[in-house]
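User: I need a structural model of Peptidase S1 domain-containing protein from Meganyctiphanes norvegica for a docking pre-check later this week. Nothing fancy, just the predicted structure tokens so I can convert them on my end. Input:
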Amino acid sequence: ETPLDLEAVGPRIRPICLPSASNPSQYENVDAIVTGWGHTKSEARPRDSVNNLPIPNIYSSVCLHKHHKTVKHSLFYSVKRSPEKNDSGGPIVKDVGSHFILIGVVSWGYGCAHPSYPGVYARVTDAIDWITITSSSIRIRAHLNA
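Assistant: Understood. Predicted structure tokens for Peptidase S1 domain-containing protein:
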């Protein structure tokens, strides 16, 4: 009944644009940014500040070769860099100049940003119908200060 006030949640919490479900492959082989508070080394403590990790994402065949697992269309993968420990659930976004688009959610990877294994992300376009239906029942009040 009461709108969710994003400013009350945290000063850096803001709405994000969602991708179109009409062309799910439009975000393959593009540079993106993972954001999180995960560890920067396997034995390190979580960060006190947010970390941005620029990553290229890749096609499923490379992930199949590296992980030796069945590759699902609902996932996509990054090569050379993967998210840090405890970044699961964090956003992976595409900077399109005037705004960001949420293209994925951190799912899993081996070790802590292991360079030999692709990071694995849930593809937002595969869940866009569920997100739209679920979020349409939530009223959000956002104050965007320029």
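Before docking, keep this in mind: The first helix runs from residue 6 to 9.
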